[in-house]
Amino acid sequence: MRLKTRTALLRGGLVPALVLPLVTTAQDGLQVHGNFSSDAQYYTDDEEIGAVAPAQDLGVNAWGNVIFTYGRFQAGVRLESYEPALLGYPAGQPYKGSGLGYRYVSYETDDLEVTVGNFYEQFGQGLVLRSYEERYLGVDNALDGVRVRYRPVPGLYLKGLIGRQRFGFDNGATKGPGIVRGFDGELSLAEAFGERWTCTSNLVLGGSFVSKYQEDKDPLYVLPENVGAWAARLNFTTPKWNIYSEYAHKINDPNGKNGFIYKDGNALLVNATYSTRGLGISAGAHSFDNMFFQSDRAAPTPFDLNINFLPPLAKQHTYNLPATLYPYATQPNGEVSYQGEVFYKFKKGTPLGGKYGTKLAVNASTALALDTTVVPLAGDSTRTGYRTNSIFNFNTDITNKYFTDINVELRKKVSANWELALTYLYLEYDIDVIQGKPGKPMVFANIAVLEGLHNFTERTSLRFEVQHLWTKQDHGNWATLLAELTFSPHWFVAVMDQFDYATFNSTFPQEGDPQADTERIHYPLASVGYIRGANRFQLSYGRQRAGIFCVGGVCRQVPAANGLTLSITSTF
Q1: Is the dihedral of CA 256, 259, 264, 270 positive or negative?
Q2: What confidence tens digit (pLDDT) does each residue in 36-49 have?
Q3: Residues 6+ apart with CB under 8 A from 66
Q4: CB of 568 within 8 A of CB of 536?
């Protein structure tokens, strides 16, 4: 009866074939690890913020991973449940039901690793391939197939894979129609030459090739069924320097995101960092041109079946106002970005360092439209849509700009129990392009943040944030107050209020109406949490502002909501 129950639980994948023999015949050498996470929210209507509770009232996202390891074998499963999914989740295709979302078996021996089933993989920075999961965005493009990794000699790493991508979830993971195939090689000279490499520096060279296959059923166009992309990269490192560059080229890939044009795609990124004691400097630039790369040319949203990943060149803020109101999302069809940052620590005992030292960070980034010329559309072979005039565009005219972020952070410990941080940000934000709000004007915003941490005792501390955003566009001014009281090692309590008051005047020039009434709306939220060992519980109640939620340059829309939320996480 026990074996029958296990078989029923794991039915539907490759895992039972290997896991069950291991469980029944090799108990002593078997290791089992895993984790569980669940977010449940009870919704209520709130007319003031436009929140409408769904018919079910309750949304639940839950998933659990179990990993079995025995010697050189490893197998794992992930069971998922969306009964139904939380509002606004995921970023792409809807998830519904409960079932098996991920399963795999892998074996490793003599520098060879073979994985059959689901897996995540990345070549270089991901310009031609990145299969990954971002759980709280609902982004999951796991491959289902076969992957082989091999190190034939020291310093040389080879990868090969083939499979289809996860498309959605309907009582189990569903797959897209396209087949993805890829190969990657990387050579580390320091590892390859061993003791003969006497330099303190290292040079790593790499190259990738990825192709997708999808049958052509289009009645209008002759579409390429095999679309290939290649990339080359180098990474030079010294004790103080790290220089990385990668170039990618994609052959013509007419698809729903580029208007079915027959134009090649290109991507180039360059990053350099210098670090020494108390000083860090980084600079980067990239150019993306027609680089949407999805295994289904008719994928319904920009979040579905992405083969590649285009990293943003913008600071990933953690403070509430800049992170949730105006975060930048990469524009795959065309953008040029630059970023620079300087970090400096003033030493203890100096006039600016004081007793404990002072940290200063200055960061600036911008994203611009490509410099292009429109090409009249004609037949298939000449239907290129536009011509790119320059790979790096220095035109900073406001009509050509998507985004600018200039920020300064000063962090200082002022006493044995107090630490303060002051941050200022200046933003320029094309909300029309980035968030898809046609006709909306460019947003110009200033944000100030004061963060403080006070340690009452070794186990009790209070952290607070005071944030304010000034703008005459979009929803106007915002203020956020946050306080978190921690009683280590088990309890914490947090309260937050976001306040959209547009302006203190009685009217606000909104959406072209200079006499629009000013809205003043509070979004309070209270949370209490308990941590015991590997288990964490958090209960929250309050309002959720409609907007966007971003991680690593990928964003999803979040609807307005009001209700009670329970989050549970556990590992074993």
Answers
A1: negative
A2: 999 999 999 988 88
A3: 32, 33, 34, 76, 77, 78
A4: yes
Residues 6+ apart with CB under 8 A from 281: 273, 274, 275, 340, 341, 342, 343
Cα gap 337→367, rounded to integer Å: 4
Q: How many CB atoms lie within 10 A of CB 449?
A: 22
Distance CA 546, CA 559 (A): 4
Q: Which amino acid is at 58?
A: L
Residue 489 exposed, middle or buried by CB count within 10 Å (0-12, 13-18, 19+): exposed
Q: Are 253 and 216 in contact (CB under 8 A)?
A: no
Report in angstroms the alpha-carbon separations of 507 from 58, 196, 512. Answer: 38, 74, 12
Closest CA to 250 of 222, 231, 224, 268: 231
CB 405 within 8 A of CB 426: yes
Coil vs helix vs strand at 332: coil
3-state helix/strand/coil string of 245-287: EEEEEECCCCCCCCCCCCCCEEEEEEEEEEEECCEEEEEEEEE
**140 in Cβ contact with 168 (< 8 Å):** no
Q: How far apart are CA 347 and CA 353, in angstroms?
A: 5
Question: Model confidence at 383, in pLDDT bands (50, 70, 90)?
Answer: confident
Half-sphere exposure in the Cβ direction for 207 (13 Å, CA): 1
Helices (H), 99-256: 189-193
Measured CA distances, 213 to 163, 222, 430 (Å):
11, 14, 35
Q: Which residue shows structure tokens 């009281």?
A: 485
CB atoms within 10 A of CB 5: 9
Question: Which residues of 110-155 form beta strands (DSSP E)?
Answer: 112-119, 121-122, 130-131, 133-134, 139-140, 143-150
Between 77-86, 391-400, 428-437, 559-568, the lowest mean confidence (pLDDT) is in 391-400
CB 428 within 8 A of CB 414: no
* CA angle, 566 then 569 then 572, to 5°: 155
Cα–Cα distance measured from residue 491 to residue 476, given in angstroms and rounded to the nearest whole number: 36
**∠332-556-485 over CA atoms, to 5°?**
130
SS3 for 200?
A: coil
pLDDT grade, residue 7 (50/70/90)?
A: very low
Cis omega (within 30 of 0) for bond into 514: no
Q: Which of 58-67, 243-252, 269-278, 375-384 has the lowest mean pLDDT?
A: 375-384
CB 278 within 8 A of CB 269: no
Mean pLDDT score, 419-431: 94
Residue 48: DSSP 8-state: G
Owner of token pair 């549970």: 568
**pLDDT of 398 higher than 70:** no
Percent of the chain with pLDDT over 70: 89
469-500 per-position pLDDT tens digit? 999 888 888 999 999 999 988 999 999 999 98
